[in-house]
Amino acid sequence: MWFAFVPSFLTILVGSFYVAYQIMSFRSSHLFLNEKKQFITQLFDFIFGFFKNNPTITLILLIVAGIVILFYMLLPTMLEGGLIQMIARKYNKQQPRIIDGIGYGFASFLPLLEYHAISKSFSVFTVITTGALFLRNTEIETFQLLSIPMVFIGLVGLIMTILFTYTDFFIVIDKEDIFKSISKSCSLVLTNWHHTFLIMILMIIISIRILINILLVLIIPAIIMISGAIIAAFTMAKIGIIVGVIIGIVALVIASYFTAIIHVFADAVWTFTFLELTKEEQLNAREKQSAQ
To answer: Is the entire prediction scored with pTM above 0.90?
Structure first.
């Protein structure tokens, strides 16, 4: 469970700040308040002002933020490799230990990190965030012109995501290189078209997981801000902030736990499907079917 809980915790934590940033950026854009300074400029001004008045605290916060971002960029990929290996080995009646899972994660870390960097560049999420950036910083007419190619790119990215479904597993379990894993994944998806219905179900499971992540990311900042504001309205501001932070941390842990359960379940289903589909090699037209 820790192999899924830690990535879920980091994803929701970073995602909460990212969603808050997007909301504030839209709020200050020409679509709403049309403020003279963009939110990112206001944020840097606030950080520099806070640093002048509280240099030590600011430095500590920046170091903590840097560590969290570094963990967010590296740990989920490493733990994902370890989780896939452990699920596959348990499927084959092996008994891997947690310390073994960490070793498996390190073994597949670099190729998996490289593949994720490639795949995320054309993901639907990347298209949506790019579209949000254009929407905030361009006129509506310009955005309407850009929306057509962005929708097309998003559809292409969705198709590629489906074709690359098993790439992670070829990298982690079979230790193939990145481009060979991508090629094998595309071939496996296309040649097993009769499993389309199963793949669709799996994609729905992943979509539900993503939707839950999004909802949790939206709820947690709201809980922190609303609870802090309500308590601050009746008591001292510092107490309101402290209580709001405590409630937010509790909500973050609970959200991470339930997201981790979905993460493990989805990875197990995908891993079992991969192992079953690759159990027997596909025959070409010149080969004879072996006797069962």
So the answer is: no
